[in-house]
Amino acid sequence: MVSAAAPRKFTARLGTAKRLRKSEVPPSDVAVAICNQCGDRFLIARNPTIVNVQILDKHLLFLQEQFVWDHIQENKHRSSIRLPE
Ligand SMILES: [Zn+2]
Question: Which of 49, 50, 62, 83 is most solvent-facing, going by the fewest CB within 10 Å?
Answer without folding.
Answer: 49
